[in-house]
């Protein structure tokens, strides 16, 4: 058999689906998995009759590839990636390319890029979004690492990527080192925020407004035809329509404890390193942690006092749903604004020439956070490439100006009636904090100077000049 265009190492569902996607676009693939049976089952099953061959060792995989060899790792982040790299660098020759298609931490990717380039090889850290369906039919792809590898792999990666409405592949070069995986990390952070916002909106309609799953599903279907149109809104409506054998909505049978793979946490930790407030995304991560404390929460629910929604809503339900829509839209904009603020800071810290408008285009198809207003974000950065924060772009500024009355009513109602809304509320407080010319940090600096002589600046003196007061004399 002729040598293959690319090798795929790792045959979990993502690896299998990417292999089938690549083959469907006219390329030949050679696959490998440490468990031999996985290779055989795939070759004789889903890949039967296709230009997909199998290898049962890494030397065999390397020998079965055209040069320069391209090997994509579809394995769990961390040590498994390093184990594969350690084995491959002794088998490959200068100019060959290793591609990490998993959810690796961007600092690991940057370190691996330097190490592998020192061996005369090339390395790409490629963020891939879209889940199993995206891997098979077209994901969003965010490549970074060794620039010299991009012209070699771009025809293949762009061919398998999702296509936007205008036919443009949702795949383009992001930047050097760990830039690709950094952009994917921020994507996932925004995804965490979006999902938490949707869950809080569902909770408000169900517990406070007393709406049934069918009513809530109709609302999400209506929203999916407007400004809020997105993949996550669409699938939420589909989820709410499913029933079990007894006719109960399946979503109501699912235990309220959420899991995570860590990328949202990475985004939050990185925001601390960068000094960028990622409050909404951070609250989304904390909400998952809190949900996992199920037994403790059940115990606390019997002990702690506070208002409890009874589902007997007495107001204008249609008006309240519209307020919720406005709160959701405004909070979603804040989620993106915070994500792009983190991208902007990291671009400076790591000397990445990130094109924020182009990055937005990568998310128009295939990925989890694809939504209607991504084109408006691209327009915002086209109007002003140096835009400091998405909130001050005229388009988004006007939307929030019109939405904030409803946003505030929703947050007020939730707080008064004891409904937890960490994402919606933190988005609003971030907005109010960002638009405040004055914040009480002057008192905080006085406190720091009092107990630690940390000094402070004065409003009547030039910036950068430091002062100290002997508070106890």
- Please state roughly what percent of the residues sit in beta strands, choosing from under 5%, 5-15%, 15-25%, 25-35%, 35-45% or over 45%: 5-15%
Radius of gyration: 25 Å
Q: How many beta-strand runs?
A: 8
Q: In which range does the helix fraction lie?
A: 40-55%
Mind explaining what this structure looks like?
- The protein contains 19 helices and eight strands.
- It is globular, with a radius of gyration of 25 Å.
- 53% of the residues lie in helices and 8% in strands.
- The longest helix has 33 residues, at 317-349.
- By secondary structure, it is an alpha/beta fold.
- Strands 3-2-1-4-5-6-7-8 form an eight-stranded mixed beta sheet, with helices on both faces.
Question: In summary, what is this structure?
Answer:
This protein has 473 residues and is an alpha/beta fold. It has helices at 13-24, 36-44, 58-63, 79-88, 106-117, 131-137, 150-160, 179-208, 213-223, 231-241, 263-274, 279-291, 294-301, 317-349, 356-362, 374-383, 394-416, 422-434, 441-452, and strands spanning 6-9, 29-32, 52-55, 70-73, 97-100, 122-129, 140-145, 175-176.
Could you list some keywords that capture this structure?
single chain, about 475 residues, alpha/beta, eight-stranded mixed sheet, 19 helices, globular
SSE arrangement:
Elements: E1 6-9, H1 13-24, E2 29-32, H2 36-44, E3 52-55, H3 58-63, E4 70-73, H4 79-88, E5 97-100, H5 106-117, E6 122-129, H6 131-137, E7 140-145, H7 150-160, E8 175-176, H8 179-208, H9 213-223, H10 231-241, H11 263-274, H12 279-291, H13 294-301, H14 317-349, H15 356-362, H16 374-383, H17 394-416, H18 422-434, H19 441-452
Parallel strand pairs: 1-2, 1-4, 2-3, 4-5, 5-6, 7-8
Antiparallel strand pairs: 6-7
Helix pairs in contact: 1-6, 5-8, 8-11, 8-12, 8-14, 9-10, 11-12, 12-18, 14-17, 14-18, 15-16
